Amino acid sequence: MESLVERVLGPAAPGERLRTDALFALAMAVSAVVIVRSVRDNGHVPDVLGWALLLVAHVVIVWRRRAPVRVMVTLMAILLVYHSLDNNHTAPMAVSMVALFTVASRTRPRNTLLIGVGVMGVMLTVKFSEGVAEGAESLRISGWIVAFLLLGVYVRIHRQYVASVVERAERAERTREEEARRRVAEERLRVARDLHDLLAHSITLVGVQTSVAAHVLAADPDRLDRAAVAKALDDVAETCRAARGELRATLQVLRSGSDDEGGAGTDGARGPLPGLDGLPDLADAARTAGARVELAVADCRAPAAVGAAAYRIVQEALTNVVRHAGPGITVRVSVRTEDAALCVRVADDGRGGREGRDGRDPEGGQGGGHTPGFGLLGMRERARTVGGTLDAGPRPEGGFLVSAVLPLAPVSLGGLS
């Protein structure tokens, strides 16, 4: 009963519970008075002491939920005196059963067993001392005692079960919220990496191409090479169009809230997850910036996430070559399958292998040496998202080498991008 009320109305405050228990005790006291007036064949009508004991028994029961065992023991002492005076034995039945139920539903099973044995032991001892007929009557009453004790035990077990279900539900809800926050953080990191790679690559190419145009304009103003200027400006426009398309596709993922990366990037380098078929475009863009790119891509199939990681690694490597390695460099890009893994290798023969790219910029690009950035760090994160590894550093013969090994088997690491 109590558990049902609490589940329907919600847990009450301590003051409200005490007020409810007081009203409940008052209702039982009124019922006890009615029983005394209507039942005449089960003991005498209580005298002043009997009424006082009956009233105290109903007052004590108000604190039954705060101290079930102590209230039960006090009630047993009061009712033992009450029954020994041969007062109406039916009147305190309700308050006795409520106290037994509270002990069984709110204390440990050991307390329930001790209280039950104690109550029945005292009752049977007293009744059988008065005669066999009285003892037989007490055996009938003991059935009610056992029934209320079992009902209390059932309520206690049910309450514990409900509490465990609620706890599991709350834990599952917390887990879902944490998972949602983790996915949001991973998606933010993915978008940040995509935007970094896209903008760094595009801005670097635009910078190089505009430098070419400026050089042509300033080299010999009297003999202006209009074709060279026009080509440089066309390259700038094409780079801007490509960057705008890829930026639009990346932002579209944010607008739609889609987390399906497997179907993205099917159109080469224009989707949020470009793949190996976009590498020729990267090579052409680097060539327009003045680099000699030798691209060798084996005929291999890779999962979308692995292909996207390889694309971004090559993109960042070529961007850093154009930015830091100097003019007229040769870059060799190799992508092949070996031992169930995609092996990506980007090597250049540019300057700065020892002096400009010796680790003074451990989180920056492949060169620079003085400008902090996130080139190598981003490439390593790309490799880790698919369970791979990446090594980068100066080559003994000069230049710089980026080498990545990306497993082709699915790796559940989260945040694949």
Q: What is the count of β-strands?
A: 5
Strand order within the widest sheet?
1-2-3-5-4
Beta-strand percent range = 5-15%
Low-confidence runs (pLDDT<50, min 5 residues)? 258-272, 353-373, 412-417
SSE succession: HHHHHHHHHEHEEHEE
What is the CA-atom radius of gyration, in angstroms? Answer: 42 Å
What is the approximate shape? rod-shaped
The biggest sheet, with number of strands, parallel, antiparallel or mixed sense and barrel status, is: 5 strands, mixed
How many helical elements?
Answer: 11
Distance between the amino and carboxyl termini: 56 Å
**What is the mean predicted local confidence, pLDDT?**
76
Structural class: alpha+beta
Blueprint of the fold:
Elements: H1 2-9, H2 14-38, H3 48-60, H4 68-84, H5 93-106, H6 109-130, H7 132-219, H8 226-256, H9 279-288, E1 292-297, H10 304-324, E2 330-338, E3 341-348, H11 375-385, E4 389-394, E5 400-407
